[in-house]
Each structure stands twice: as structure tokens, then as C-alpha cells.
């Protein structure tokens, strides 16, 4: 007899490390914006793997590219060239208007790579005394889970008991350009920032902030690294969220949707004179830039180059924000976000965001809390307007009782 959902959850609980607290739903199949659990119940996906599924589940063009590559060549390591890497890098650079690409796998690896590149640039190009480079980051950031990255997290849960921490980071208040200016010094290699803080609750900084950050970086010969791993690749209605502020970074980190919901694909993209500081042997990854990842990434780039997904995020996102805005005062304290991405702040005295997520799950809509009082909504950009309305109706009904 096949295992029940309860059996499968029990297996996870017993054999899988308890580093997550998933909703008690066990998924078995998916298509587009819809997922199906092991009992055949369908749910609308209102989270899209935190933007890893921007194109929905099993987008036909992405699956086709993956299957075709599986029939040709999957892995070489970087000991040899292969016929997908250069094309992937050129196409990603052209899409993002950058000059060079450093392919990696996970988002955290891309951020780690950008940190290493910025430090080396500081020593070799800016002339910072060896071992003293600093990187300025924002409070309430989320850049991943490695020991160096949690070293500059301000989330106690992410940090406690994982020290000693990597030195060389300064944390300043997000959205406060004056605080940033005060933290810059001749030793500053880079400022690392999210254009919208997803994990913190979809926090959009004050208008003009990113532009001021850019100007401060220019005035201080400091690199600007923008982490677009969650915000980028059409999530906010533009290819990169930093476009809303008319800001160009020196380095961008990309991930999540770059893998098309199929496999981990990440990259640092940016200036040739910055990424160019790396020499053979100084950095790498066995799987980074593998043929399968490059083939899937190239198919993702083709989808993004049409502009269709940016457009869907803009129009559907405007609709989402209009409708969620109507819930303010009806169980909702505030709605933040951009495009098809929202942080819904539950009014004080209401349910916790976790309880609301569980209620929504029972009603067939999957999304997830971030912190106690924020519901994060990030539907796949392929979602049909009727389905989006169905999800919003379900949220409104759940808040009403
Ligand atoms: C998810 C995320 C990361 C880390 O990506 P992983 O693939 O989970 O390592 C880094 N930065 C941001 C902004 C993210 O949302």
C-alpha cells in the first residue's frame, strides 16, 4: 500500500534534519500555478518557491530544454570546456546589460563569490591594505545561510550558536542613506544590498534610497553589489528590481528563477574589470556552469527576453496590490511590495501569519509566513488572472473568519 500523507510527514520528521517548519501538505505533482498533493487535492501556489518558480511549475519550454540537454551532456566539471557555457554567459550578460558572468549553483554561493571578488578588487585595484577590507550591508538582510553570510545577519535565529563569525562587515539600517554614508571608509570594498528585502517581509526602501546608495558608492570608489536573487528576473515587473530606481550595480547576484524551477543555477554578473580580478584556481565550483544548468539557464533567458513575464508581473501585480489594498482595515494593517510580490502585514490581535497560512492551506491556497505577522505572497508569473482573483478571494475570506 502506498504511504499516506501522515506517513510521509513522519518520515521527514524522523530522517530529515529539522531546519525547516513546512506546512503539513505533501506535494506530488504540479503544473503551472497549481500543485497537487498525494491525496489528489489541488492547491494554488501563491509562493512560487520564493521566486524560484517565476515561470510556474514545469514550464514546457524549460522542461524541453532540460530533457534535450539530458540526452546530450550533463556534467563536465570545469576541467574541460563544453558547448553551453560561453553561450549561457554571453546571453545572460546581454540580457542584464553586463559584461561578464561567474556561474555558480545556489544563491548563497553567488553572494559568497561576490564577497570574494569585491575583497580581491579592494586589495588589487582600490589599494586597501591587505586583510582590512570592509563590506557594508543592511540590517534585516537575507543573503543566504553560509557561515560568512550569517556573520552579518541581524536575525538571531540565523546566527545563534554558529559563531565565531567572519569579520569585515558593517551593518547599517536599511533605507537610511545617512547611516550608510557614515559607515563608508577608505577600507570599504563594497555595499551589498537587496533592492527589496524579501525575507524581511517584502520591505521596499524609501524612494530615492537606492539612487543615493549608488551615488555614495561612486563618491567613495566603492562597489555596489545588488542581490537580485529573489527580487530579480521579472518578479517586480522589470527584469531587475533595481531598474525601478534607475540604478545600475557593479555586480548583481542572481539565482532562484535562473534555474527555471528545475535545478539550482546562480551567477554573479557585472563589470569585466571587477570580475576580471579572479585568476585560475582562486575560486570555483564543481557544478557551477555545468551543461545542464547552462541549457536550463539559456531557456530561462529566452523567456525573459520576450518581456512577457515582466509585463504579466506589472499588470497582474497592479491588480494584486489594488485588491490587497482593499483589505487594509479588514484584518490587514499594511501591504508592501512591487509587481506580483507582496508582504501582507496582519493587523494586531489577529491570527499569526502561520495560523493564516494553515487556514489558507485548508482552503486550497499555499503561501507562507515570514516572521510572526507577515504573509509573503509571490505567485508564479504565469498565473491566470482568474486564479489570482481566486487566491485573493480566499485570503479575504480567511481573514474575515
Ligand atoms: C534565497 C536568497 C538567497 C540565498 O539563495 P539560496 O539558493 O537559498 O542559497 C540570497 N539572497 C536572497 C535575496 C535570497 O532571497
UniProtKB/TrEMBL annotation:
* Biochemical pathway: Amino-acid biosynthesis; L-proline biosynthesis; L-glutamate 5-semialdehyde from L-ornithine: step 1/1
Cross-referenced PROSITE patterns: AA_TRANSFER_CLASS_3
What name does the UniProt record give this protein?
ornithine aminotransferase
Q: Which cofactor does it need?
A: pyridoxal 5'-phosphate
PANTHER family this protein is in? AMINOTRANSFERASE CLASS III, ORNITHINE AMINOTRANSFERASE, MITOCHONDRIAL
Pfam families xrefs? Aminotran_3
Q: Which Gene3D superfamilies match?
A: Aspartate Aminotransferase, domain 1, Type I PLP-dependent aspartate aminotransferase-like (Major domain)
- Signal sequence region: none
* Protein family according to the UniProt entry: Belongs to the class-III pyridoxal-phosphate-dependent aminotransferase family.
Which Enzyme Commission numbers does its entry carry?
2.6.1.13
The protein's enzyme class:
transferase
InterPro entries listed in its UniProt record: Aminotrans_3, Aminotrans_3_PPA_site, Class-III_PLP-dep_AT, Orn_aminotrans, PyrdxlP-dep_Trfase, PyrdxlP-dep_Trfase_major, PyrdxlP-dep_Trfase_small
Q: Does the record's keyword annotation contain Transferase?
A: yes
Keywords, sorted A to Z? Aminotransferase, Pyridoxal phosphate, Transferase
Q: Does the keyword Electron transport apply?
A: no
GO MF, one annotated term: ornithine aminotransferase activity
Amino acid at each position: 500500500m502506498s504511504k499516506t500523507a501522515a506517513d510521509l510527514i513522519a518520515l521527514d520528521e524522523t530522517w530529515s534534519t529539522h531546519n525547516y517548519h513546512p506546512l503539513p501538505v505533501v506535494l506530488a505533482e504540479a503544473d503551472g500555478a497549481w500543485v497537487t498533493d498525494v491525496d489528489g487535492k489541488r492547491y494554488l501556489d501563491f509562493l512560487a518557491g520564493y521566486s524560484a518558480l517565476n515561470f510556474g511549475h514545469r514550464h514546457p519550454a524549460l522542461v524541453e530544454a532540460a530533457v534535450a540537454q539530458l540526452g546530450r551532456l550533463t556534467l563536465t566539471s570545469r576541467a574541460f570546456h563544453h558547448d553551453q557555457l560561453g553561450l549561457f554567459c554571453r546571453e545572460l550578460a546581454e540580457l542584464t546589460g553586463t559584461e561578464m558572468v561567474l556561474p555558480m549553483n545556489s544563491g548563497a554561493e553567488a553572494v559568497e563569490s561576490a564577497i570574494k571578488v569585491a575583497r580581491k578588487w579592494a586589495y588589487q585595484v582600490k589599494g586597501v591594505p591587505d586583510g582590512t577590507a570592509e563590506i557594508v550591508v543592511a540590517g534585516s538582510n537575507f543573503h543566504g545561510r553560509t557561515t560568512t553570510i550569517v556573520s552579518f545577519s541581524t536575525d538571531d535565529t540565523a546566527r545563534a550558536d554558529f559563531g565565531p563569525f567572519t569579520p569585515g562587515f558593517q551593518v547599517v539600517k536599511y533605507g537610511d542613506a545617512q547611516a550608510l554614508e557614515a559607515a563608508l571608509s577608505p577600507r570599504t570594498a563594497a555595499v551589498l544590498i537587496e533592492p527589496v528585502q524579501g525575507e524581511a517581509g517584502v520591505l521596499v526602501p524609501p524612494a530615492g534610497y537606492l539612487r543615493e546608495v549608488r551615488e555614495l558608492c561612486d563618491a567613495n570608489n566603492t562597489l555596489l553589489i545588488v542581490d537580485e536573487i529573489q527580487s530579480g528576473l521579472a518578479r517586480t515587473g522589470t527584469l531587475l528590481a533595481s531598474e525601478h530606481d534607475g540604478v545600475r550595480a557593479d555586480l548583481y547576484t542572481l539565482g532562484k528563477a535562473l534555474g527555471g524551477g528545475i535545478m539550482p543555477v546562480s551567477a554573479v554578473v557585472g563589470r569585466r574589470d571587477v570580475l576580471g580580478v579572479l585568476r585560475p584556481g582562486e575560486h570555483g565550483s564543481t557544478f557551477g556552469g555545468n551543461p545542464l544548468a547552462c541549457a536550463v539557464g539559456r531557456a530561462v533567458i529566452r523567456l525573459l527576453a520576450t518581456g512577457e513575464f515582466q509585463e504579466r508581473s506589472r499588470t497582474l501585480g497592479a491588480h494584486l496590490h489594488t485588491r490587497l489594498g482593499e483589505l487594509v482595515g479588514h484584518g490587514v494593517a499594511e501591504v508592501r511590495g512591487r509587481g506580483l510580490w507582496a508582504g501582507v502585514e496582519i493587523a494586531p490581535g489577529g491570527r499569526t501569519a502561520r495560523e493564516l497560512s494553515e487556514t489558507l492551506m485548508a482552503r486550497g491556497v499555499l503561501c507562507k509566513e515570514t516572521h510572526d505577522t507577515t504573509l509573503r505572497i509571490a505567485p508564479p508569473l504565469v498565473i491566470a488572472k482568474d486564479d489570482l482573483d481566486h487566491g485573493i478571494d480566499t485570503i479575504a475570506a480567511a481573514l474575515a473568519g
